[in-house]
Amino acid sequence: MNSRPPSSRAQQNATTGMRATLRGIVINVCLAAAKGVAGVLGNSYALVADAIESTTDIFSSGAVFLGLRMAGKPADDNHPYGHGKFEPLAAVAVALGLFGAAILIAIASVHEIVTPHHAPAPFTLVVLVFVIIIKEALFRFTDNIGEKTASTAVIADAWHHRSDAITSGAAFVGISIALIGGVGYESADDFAALIASVVIALNAISIVKPALFELTDAAPSPEIVTQVREVAESIAGVFGTHKCFVRKVGFDYFVDLDILCDPELSIRKGHEIAHQVGEAIAAQLPMVSRVLVHVEPVDDYGRRSL
User: Fold this and answer.
1) pTM above 0.90?
2) What distance, in Å, lies between the first and last C-alpha atoms of the chain?
3) Distance CA 192, CA 9 (A)
4) CA–CA–CA angle 241, 250, 252 (5° rounding)
5) 195 lies in a domain?
6) Residue 65 sits in the same domain as residue 137
């Protein structure tokens, strides 16, 4: 039995995530333009690479926005379990965007390293300081929203902001070395961009793993299973639990649970107990959207009947 129809919780979380994502898109548009202009005028490929990373942020955040919008839709005939899978799909899109940015930056960095050029202009350091502060603040804000809404996509988007901050930090170090070292150190910021591309790729890997786990219905944290069992076993008439499977679907969790009851119970009474279990789980664990409860008999020793 289902404890309840899908609530508005997923829609509320999707709306919250979309607002945070839109804020990030607006900021990234401004930062990408500023860094691109400063990088060209200031002769810094590291800053240009940083602008490329910010540009990929815009597109990946757009994918997150669309994914959240789809994930917030209620269930329908074609998607009886809802549209939650669009949320981790958006996280995968972010990871792919990061991989693409890392490859582009790495290729261009190598090209700049082998091509003689002038050292970057000092004013590019000032631009980078502001960028680092803004992007780190944006990361913290977005990551907090992602944790509150249990959104894989929003958390992935947050780490895309962190990757941008890392790229900017690497550029700051590289440009500083180029300016302090003088002749012979002109390519320091290009090496910094190359190193940043590796960090970005590693971040992409860390983002795509939980998204793929969710898409393949991997088991969530054992703590959730423990909580479900504890709530179920607190209901009168439940002697214990047997199977308990939990999977994450977008913002919500779906539960398949076996409860052990007196084998002499009537069908009606067993149904009532199962209903109480589902209602209790829904009330005490708001992240659980649906509960399918199956009643099984228990013998005099508390063991599952074969």
Assistant:
1) no
2) 23
3) 43
4) 40
5) yes
6) yes
Quote the CA–CA distance of 161 and 105 in Å, as a whole number.
16
232 in the same domain as 115: no
Same-domain check for residues 194 and 242: no
Domain of residue 268, CATH code: 3.30.70.1350
Q: Which of 215, 232, 264 is the last residue of a domain?
A: 215
Would you give per-residue pLDDT tens digits along the chain (306 residues)? 444 444 566 677 788 888 888 888 898 888 888 888 888 888 777 677 778 777 877 887 888 888 888 877 777 778 777 787 888 888 888 888 888 888 888 888 888 787 766 677 788 888 889 888 998 999 999 999 888 887 888 888 888 788 778 878 887 888 888 888 877 777 787 788 788 888 888 888 888 888 888 888 777 888 889 999 999 999 999 998 888 999 888 778 889 999 999 888 898 998 999 999 999 998 898 888 888 999 988 864 455 444
62 and 185 in one domain? yes
Amino acid at 43: N
Q: Quick one: which H or E segment has residue 240?
A: strand 240-249
